[in-house]
Write a structure and sequence with these properties.
It contains 18 helices and 25 strands. By secondary structure, the chain is an alpha/beta fold. The strands form six sheets. The protein has a nine-stranded mixed β-sheet with strand order 15-14-13-21-20-19-18-17-16. Helix 2 packs antiparallel against helix 3 and helix 16 packs across helix 17. The longest helix is centred in the last third of the chain and has 23 residues. This is Glycoside hydrolase 123 catalytic domain-containing protein. Pfam families: GH123_cat.
């Protein structure tokens, strides 16, 4: 955001205004008699406001906010400033437009409707980023009072309703394709107060007038319809009559605006937009760095198949079931996430798989070969039915996959957070079976403590750190909870010291119920930078992968449009990163959360830091995130967006070719 370009597109009307104090909040007081100074001197009048006759700046506040801001309903207006973005190719960069009514111009109980239209972003060389393809608009919808769900705005009717005394937000995303030429791209967003649909309907023609026009048009159609004419004179007479009817219809007073504009309604709409809209200037610098298609950090996220089956009433293994899973898989790939589907068993045993189809199915190679996939889970079928048929199926699955070039991305996720010696022994037994099929198989195990009933070490943390000695060679990916570390980054070295990289062992991390505030996590209501900082923490601590247990694990429901309820006993938002589209509209497309978008941003930040470190060394990369104030530790990271832009700008400045 560049303050020097403050609101130049809106006629230079930058107003520092205050919102009314709220009873009981920050000292309270009363909002009775509060007057927005921004309305002084306007000619709105005391009657019903026609938004087509008044500049939208007199009707609503408009300002921009970064993607890390949680724009609450009581967010205070700020000056409108030009938005300046920086993005690499194959990157998504987002920001928010905040809207708050100064007055109400609707008669239907809302403050009014607002139309948001964006131009394409164009460079001086003629390249462009097209609205609807590279540029998308989504309404930020509160969940439990917290701005979270990002509901798509119809590009054919880009309008939203805003409420009196409340701030609304629109999430704007720019997706830069891999092949986009570098350069400066510029455009504008027009924010216009418009009549509501109900208000427009009240101004429509009376029913009697509609019926009269209908009859006349119908008679015109009858006159010109195909028929056998008895003579040329009859044909001329009927066409003359039809012409008279059409002229009478066109002279109707309701069509007067069209007469004055020769019927070019779109041109008139454009003129209105130019004259009365608040205009937000937007510029994007695309630089000559392309984010790798395959994420540098494997981030594997669970999708509950049982939640999908219940909510969408799908029978396991049916055509509709495969279609639903395929849709969720492909949708999540855009977030630089490697999804896996999961079904939970007793004692936290888990069936995890990335592809619903067996390895010999054509779809399987399509899934596993997708370059956007950094890692994939292979199903351990005997967890459901320990029969000879299941074991033979597993053996065949491994034999097919281990011959493929993508086998290095494969892993088995067998047990979530084993707690005792018996569960550890079962992991070892399954590992022996799998290693008999493929000696280089990779098994992932999540844990936050050592096995109870063992005497690994005298202290709880030491027992936790010694887990690799128990699970070697039966686990290759040791995935530990960030909750165990707390704010003690120094404990990382104790964990890593027990690993054997020479044997292919890796250290991954995960978050779930913990850690809690102020440490980074994805709970609803946490700060935006706190969400994004999860990936900053991973990068600084040196983990080589990340796992998240569930992204759609809300309470059970039996219809797609049922209200979303978070699971009891879990922090709000834990295990839920997107919502069914049917909850908000007739769309079947999943609805992302702001938290999911911030995960993507964090994944993209890792690519920036990796590029910088490849040029100047890891120590310099660590110094960069500290000297910019972006991230110093799990409880010491920026609360504001500014340092994020400073870090990204420094990478751009020092690494562009």
């Amino acid at each position: 955001m560049d303050p020097s370009d403050s609101n130049s597109a809106a006629g230079g009307k930058t107003q520092n205004v205050s919102v009314p104090p709220v009873e009981g909040v920050a000292g309270g007081g009363t909002s009775y008699g509060w007057v927005d100074g921004g309305l002084r001197g306007t000619n709105i009048g005391a009657g019903v406001i026609d938004p087509t006759k008044v500049h939208s700046d007199d009707l609503l506040h408009v300002w921009s906010m970064p993607s890390t801001a949680n724009v609450s309903q009581q967010e205070a207006p700020r000056p409108l400033e030009k938005v300046n973005l920086l993005a690499a190719r194959n990157e998504r960069e987002s920001f928010q437009i905040a809207l708050r009514p100064k007055v109400s111009w609707a008669t239907s109980g809302i403050a009014g409707s607002v139309q948001i239209q964006c131009t394409d972003l164009c460079s001086s060389s003629g390249d462009r980023l097209v609205v609807g393809q590279s540029i998308t608009l989504r309404r930020v919808v509160p969940i439990l009072g917290v701005p979270d769900a990002l509901v798509p705005i119809d590009p054919l009717s880009p309008q939203i309703s805003i409420q009196p005394g409340e701030t609304a937000a629109v999430w704007v995303s720019v997706n830069v394709p891999c092949g986009q030429p570098p350069g400066l791209y510029e455009g504008e967003i027009f924010i216009t107060a418009v009549k509501t649909e109900l208000d427009s309907r009240t101004e429509s023609l009376p029913k009697s007038e509609k019926c009269r026009l209908y009859r006349e048009l119908r008679s015109c159609l009858d006159l010109t319809g195909p028929r056998d004419y008895s003579s040329p004179e009859e044909m001329v007479q009927r066409l003359t009559s039809a012409s008279t009817v059409l002229r009478r219809v066109l002279d109707n007073p309701a069509l007067q605006d069209c007469q004055e504009n020769n019927g070019f309604g779109d041109m008139m709409d454009e003129d209105v937009i130019n004259n009365i809209s608040v205009r937000l200037k937007l510029s994007l610098t695309v630089w000559d760095f392309t984010l790798p298609v395959t994420p540098s950090l494997p981030a594997v996220f669970g999708i509950s198949e049982t939640v999908i089956e219940d909510r969408f009433c799908l029978e396991h293994g049916t055509e509709g079931w495969y279609s639903a899973l395929d849709h969720h898989f492909r949708w999540l790939l855009q977030y630089r996430i490697s999804p896996f589907f999961c079904r939970w068993g007793d004692s936290m045993r888990i069936l995890a798989y990335t592809c619903p189809w067996p390895a010999d199915h054509p779809k399987a190679n399509e899934y596993y070969s997708d370059p956007r996939l950094a890692a994939y889970a292979v199903p351990y079928a005997p967890i459901l039915s320990c029969t000879d048929a299941a074991k033979n199926s597993l053996r065949r699955e491994v034999e097919i996959l281990k011959s493929k070039p993508h086998w290095s991305k494969a892993y088995f996720y067998l047990w979530d957070e084993p707690l005792n010696v018996e569960q550890y022994d079962m992991i070892c037994n399954i590992s022996n079976e799998l290693r008999s099929y493929a000696p280089d198989v990779r098994i992932l195990t999540t844990y936050y403590c050592g096995p109870s009933g063992s005497e690994l070490a005298p202290s709880t943390f030491e027992a936790f750190a010694k887990v690799p000695n128990v699970l070697r060679p039966h686990t290759q990916i040791f995935c530990t909870s960030e909750w165990v570390l707390g704010t003690r980054e120094d404990l990382v070295k104790d964990i890593v010291a027990e690993l054997r990289p020479d044997l292919g062992e890796e250290w991954w991390t995960y978050v779930c119920m913990g850690p809690s505030d102020p440490q980074p996590n994805w709970h609803l209501g946490m700060r935006g930078t706190q969400h994004r900082a999860v990936m900053w923490r991973v990068w600084k601590e040196g983990g080589t992968g990340f796992l998240y247990w569930g992204s759609n694990c809300y309470e059970k429901a039996m219809i797609p449009s049922a209200e979303i309820c978070f699971r009891r006993g879990l922090p709000p938002g834990d295990g839920v990163l997107f919502y069914p589209g049917e909850v908000f509209s007739s769309s079947h497309e999943p609805v992302a959360s702001t938290r999911l978008e911030r995960i993507l941003s964090g994944m993209q930040d890792i690519e920036y830091l990796k590029l910088y470190s490849s040029r100047y060394g890891r120590e310099e990369g660590l110094a960069l995130i500290e000297k910019t104030g972006m991230y110093l530790g799990p409880d010491r990271y920026t609360l504001d967006h500014g340092p994020v832009d400073v870090m990204r700008g420094e990478v751009y400045r020092t690494c562009r070719s």
